Amino acid sequence: MSGDQTDLKKGQTPEPVRHRREGIGFMGRLRAYFLAGILVTAPIAITAYIAWWFVSLIDGYIRPFIPSTYNPENYLPFSIPGIGVLVVIVVVTLIGAFAAGYVGRLVLSVGEGAVGRMPVVRSVYGVVKQIFETVLAKKSNAFREVVVIQYPRPGVWSLGFITGNAHPEVQLRLDGQADDMVNVFIPCAPPTAGYLAMVPRREVTVLNMSVEDGLKLVMSGGIVVPPERRPALAEPVESRSASDGNQPDRKVLAAASRSNR
After folding, report:
1. Is there a contact between 159 and 194 (Cβ–Cβ < 8 Å)?
2. Are 168 and 196 in contact (CB under 8 A)?
3. Does the global pTM surpass 0.85?
4. Beta bridge mates, 205
């Protein structure tokens, strides 16, 4: 035995070798703190800037139409941001209350009749009205399902949203070639435009993903991946049967316990 081993007492184990942990330097800590500060402040700053820009834009258009008598900024030494947005909300609410009455419905029908006689304006008005009615309807299925389809070629999958059933004329013309056609809107990234594809429902794969998560995925270009919502896989039947076979039957155990009593 060597001299080191004789020095150890009987039953005493040698201490493990401790590796020295290299700490982060001062510049490394500053860099980590700076990146953490960006992660905290950047989303807040960008959101606040977009909100401020929107409020300032509405205020710039609405303030000139507010009478000086009802403008609180004429009586205060400072300006009130968001007064234009508040005026828009109040005016839109009052218009909705007026349109819900008998006189409002009469005026609205007369106005729509006048717009319907204008060649170009009636098309634009009709499309915009149908879009808002479809999107704001509580029972609408527009943009309720996130799907993937093989587009623009087989083997390449694109994310899309089902916006409704295809036009009956499409179903009639493609009778025998495709059945149960649906409209799928395939947005670009970022979603400034998109494509309308009419696809058979059997070729559409519905994802277990909310519309909000799908929009986040498209707007970020795939950087922001939503969390997995797939439920936990059930235990295989073979493993359950094997485990059940190794354990005695509960009815047998209950009968044995009653007999022992």
Report:
1. no
2. no
3. no
4. 148
How many other CB atoms are there within 10 angstroms of residue 159's CB atom? Answer: 20
- Calpha distance 229→210 (Å, rounded): 10
DSSP string, 169-219: HHHHHTTTT--SEEEEEEE-SSSS-EEEEEEEGGG-EE-S--HHHHHHHHH
What DSSP string runs through 92-116? Answer: HHHHHHHHTSHHHHHHHHHHHHHHT
Scanning the structure block, which residue is given the tokens 């009968």?
Answer: 255
Q: Give the Å distances, CA to CA, from 90 to 75, 93, 94, 163, 230.
A: 21, 5, 6, 32, 43
Please report, for the chain, how many H helices and E strands are present, in that order: 9, 5
pLDDT digits (tens, 9 = 90+) for 126-148: 888 877 776 676 555 667 789 99
Rounded-to-integer distance, Cα 84 and Cα 91, Å: 10
**Who's near 179: CB < 8 A, 6+ residues apart?**
171, 200
* Maximal CA-CA distance, the chain: 111
Nearest to 66 by CA among 83, 54, 80: 83
Helix/strand/coil for 19: coil
